[in-house]
Amino acid sequence: MKVTVFAPINVALIKYWGKEDNQLRLPANDSLSVCLTNLGTTTTVEWDKNLNQDLADSRMKRQLDKVRKIAQINWRAKVVTKNNFPSGAGLSSSASGLAALTLAATAAAGLKLPEKDLSRLARLGSGSACRSIPDGWVEWSKGDDKTSYAKTIFPTDYWNLRILVVIVSDKKKLVSSTAGQELAFTSPFYKARVKSMAAKIKKIKAAIKQKNFTELGKIMEADCLNMHRVMRTQQPELNYLLPETKTVMQAVKKWREEGLESYFTINTGQNALVFCEPKNENKLVERLEKIEGVIEVRRDKIGKGARLLT
Ligand code: DP6
């Protein structure tokens, strides 16, 4: 059977940086994200008994092995996958890519896994991929192999916020999130970060519940800056931000002081994600597009998780 799926990227407001188990991709802390509507990966998988090797890259092959084991098949797969945004540039292409592959490969093998099991399986491919399976506002709990998965905590249409994806470069990062995370513990700030995470999650959930945008934005931005401080103080140091990224960060702060409210977050890459309320979207896009070095601003909003297209 041939199956095509779409999985969105997800943007973490409270980030995952550091694992308790590298093999099982068990995170050191809980994290919280939203799935987007437009940006994501479309993947087609077809299992074929006549193929003698998988038509896929090595990370995907390892994920296909896991699906073969569960489905008890030994066929090879033909995989066609496409991101509608720059890959490897801080926009979570491994999250949408591995989530899409997990759903497509299991469905094409005739499996109908419950959401929880799909999320767990996606997690084994890339930690953050488990958060691209459920819809809307999503929390990924730390725990063991059985209990560490993501679930919806507020539905897609709960709160109409806008996410502006600010692309300053499509250059691929030199150090992957996986490699970078393995050395997170070398930062003198890492332990304190991990210890502070449960309280942060509690606070941001309360802000979401009250739909308090200012509170949400402050907690989100502070967590992003805290994660990047850990990265910068790791051995060797990691710095994913370009001068253009910093210009965007400074502009967002300045406009906010002047009354135009928005907050940024950034992953392992140079591109920024700016959260705002719909009333400020047009003005912000107009201003962001004028910043020297900004190539493109993509508009997005909170959306559903991975789903079958055919
Ligand atoms: C900075 O999920 O890409 O985007 O589990 O090793 O594949 P692996 O790492 P990955 O790390 C994402 C890190 C982050 C923060 C986040 O999305 O929570």
What this model shows, in words?
The protein is of the alpha+beta class and 310 residues long. The protein is 36% helix and 25% strand. The protein is built from eight helices and twelve strands. The chain has helices spanning 58-71, 93-108, 115-125, 177-182, 190-210, 213-232, 243-257, 281-290; strands at 2-14, 19-21, 26-27, 31-48, 76-83, 137-140, 150-154, 162-167, 263-266, 272-276, 296-301, 307-308. Strands 1, 4, 5, 6, 7 and 12 form a six-stranded antiparallel sheet that branches. A hairpin with a 4-residue loop joins strand 2 (19-21) and strand 3 (26-27). Helix 1 (58-71) packs antiparallel against helix 3 (115-125) and helix 5 (190-210) packs antiparallel against helix 6 (213-232). The longest helix has 21 residues, at 190-210. It is globular and about 65 Å long. The protein starts with a strand and ends with a strand. The model has no long low-confidence stretch (mean pLDDT 96). Bound molecules: ligand DP6. Ligand DP6 binds at residues 12, 15-17, 25, 31, 92, 94-95, 126-128, 177-178, 181, 267-268. Ligand DP6 binds next to helix 2 and helix 4.
Concise synopsis of the structure shown:
36% of the residues lie in helices and 25% in strands.
- Taken from the alpha-carbon principal axes, the silhouette is globular
Unreliable spans are none
Strand content: 15-25%
The biggest sheet amounts to:
6 strands, antiparallel
Number of helices: 8
Number of strands: 12
- Please, what is the average pLDDT? 96
Structural class: alpha+beta
How large, in whole angstroms, is the Cα Rg? Answer: 19 Å
Indicate the percent of residues in helices.
25-40%
List the bound ligands: ligand DP6
Distance between the termini: 11 Å
Order of helices and strands: EEEEHEHHEEEHHHHEEHEE
